[in-house]
Write a structure and sequence with these properties.
The complex is a heterodimer of chains A (263) and B (261). With 263 residues, chain A is mainly α. In chain A, 79% of the residues lie in helices and 0% in strands. Chain A has helices spanning 3-31, 33-40, 43-76, 82-88, 91-94, 97-108, 116-119, 128-139, 141-154, 157-164, 169-198, 201-206, 217-226, 233-261. In chain A, helix 11 runs antiparallel to helix 14 and helix 13 packs antiparallel against helix 14 (233-261). The longest helix of chain B has 34 residues, at 38-71. Chain B has a two-stranded antiparallel ribbon with strand order 1-2. Classes of the chains: A mainly alpha (263), B mainly alpha (261).
Chain lengths: 263, 261
Amino acid sequence: MGRLSLRFAALGYLTLILIGPLVMMVWRTAEDVDGAWTAISDPDTLSAFKLTLMVTAIAVVVNTVFGIVCALVIVRGDIRGRGFLNAFVDLPLSLSPVIVGFSLLTLYGLDGWLGWFQRNGYEILFATPSIVLATIFVTLPFVVREVVPTLREVGTEQEQAAETLGASGWQTFWRITLPCIRWAVIYGVVLTAARGIGEFGAVAVVSGNFAGETQTATLRVEDAYQFAYGNYAPAYGISFVLAATAVIILVAMILLQPKESRH
Amino acid sequence: MGFVTTFLLIIVVLPIAAIASRATDLGWSGFWQVVSSPEAVSALKLTLLMSTLAVLTTAVFGTIIAWVLVRDSFAGKSVVNAIIDLPFALPTIVAGLVIMALYGPQTPIDFTVNGHHFDANVTFTRGAIYVALLFVTLPFVVRSVQPVLMELDTELEEAARSLGASEFATFRRVVLPSILPGILSGVAMAFARAVGEIGAIVLIAGNLPFKTEVASIYLFHRISQDPEGSAAVAVVLLLISFAVLLGIGALRWHVTRHERG
């Protein structure tokens, strides 16, 4: 096979599977801009975007803290089972989001092991806490995955030097370790945010999907599609906003990548 | 360490254990009755079949795309390289709508040749599941093969060619063995992803039982009415995920046995 036929195969495939559908999606949104805008500026849609952003922000903060600590344990910890931990952290990537949502439903349901909360009026399911828990679950691996290899590469020489010079554990972490891994952390945060904003299956199971209350942006898209009655402008409009967000995230990833490899 | 264990216990282990425990409520015969019911078996079979077909396609074209991105040069290559990650960044429900824009009703690919009508509208067919899975699994193989190809020394290939090996023989004997672990790890992640996919499929497949209902959507429809039965099917899906990851891990271990000595 020649170089040209391979190039043709690669670009042809990408056109059919990726580029063509994307162009058509933009085209369909542009066909009814007014309809799309009405759907985007609907109070329930705005509330869905707000909820998605808030949930994603919480998941990012929680998983950044967890991710850094977990990566430190995997790379530096002197305990047995580090290899197991390293493999275990990847588990959410290979689980169906529906199972993730269902597992929370089972655990926090009225007759679940942690059903106490739901029974006593501390609503977790069909409320924001379950959406947050589901999003934390599915985005768990990203910061860990990015920080572990960087931490391995950096080594411990600088940290040891700092400790020899009398720095406390915290000082060493803030002044030496964190600056060394910051690009990996940021890259992990970007991936966490992208996945958090886009999560559908797990959130669909636990949120209750009440418009204006527990409906996230992706659930809003599904709703707009299911109740379209032939008018798909709202679904395409809200999707377009999410797709534009994804493109911005992608550009951020590309801008961060060269800095990462400079280490 | 205590923090990490406690966090994982509360966020991941307890919920999964709760499902497993709920599934045991049925007892062995009850469990078997649910997972061997015709609709559940049909959904599980369809999921495995479509995931296998999609991942095989992704493996072939992903490898070609990775090769073209590393070895070829043409105008706009960096843009093409950048958009490969888009299926990772795009919400899956939006991915479903993106697929629908080209392969849904009113598809622009619609023509008649010699009285034979052809159009690319795949809505409510298994073709819809296939296309949606091709979209979401695209980056996995490309991104796991690309770095390996970059590291690969072209001298070996030149040596093979100068000794009279054909292009195909060079690829099969020299390039493929080096990139195979990369392909397999991409395939493993893509397969796990495909088996669990719901967002990209749910709008376009129609979710007709026995026809276009995949396991995750079967589960999704059943959770509120039949928690015990759903837990049983969820356990089967969990076991499939574990088995695939273990299987491919073992295969990768086998492939890299020479490097490890």
